[in-house]
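Pipeline run #58 for the internal structure catalog. This entry was flagged by the ingest filter as a single-chain record with no existing model, so it goes straight to prediction. Upstream metadata was stripped on purpose; only the residue string is passed forward. Reviewer on rotation: M.T. Logging verbosity set to normal.
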Amino acid sequence: VLADALITQRKLEEAELLNDETLKLASATLGPDHPQSIQALSTKAYLAGERGDIDAAEAAYRGSVGALSASNPAHPEALIPRNNLAMFLLEAGRVDDACKELSTLGSDVLKLQGDRSPLFLIIRSNQAECLLAQGNRMAARDILQQIIPVMSDVFGDGHDRTAKAQERLARADTDSERR
């Protein structure tokens, strides 16, 4: 919690030192698969990414995904870090890797939670973002047109997730009109 406050204040070096201690202590006392250890590992990934250390960030993200998947692969807490990893890869310019991760994750979440699951809808919207990054506007547009009405039902019209999907659809439409 203190590391999160330091992150909010953009005191990233202090947050990283504190988080490293939290990770060591949580892993030693609670075990590496404990939610607090995994959360600290996720925070480590975020901080490494903020520092620009792409390799360390990816390793920490993959570590948190692996720990969560080992403890309970169907639990939402095991699925969300996979989405975070994919979005990190997308931001790092590894579009194909991000799209592959989101595709696999989307199939897993669909099987486990169904097509009205909030996580499934978020992942589909993120898949559309990947498709936009690949230049595949029509496929992105198709996904977004399918999920936006469901997102409006599940999240609400004014929700940030619905608005983000609508913004992505507007980008897909605008880019398509330019061609």
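catalog note: The first helix runs from residue 2 to 8.
catalog note: The chain is about 85% helix and 0% strand.
status: ready for reviewer M.T.
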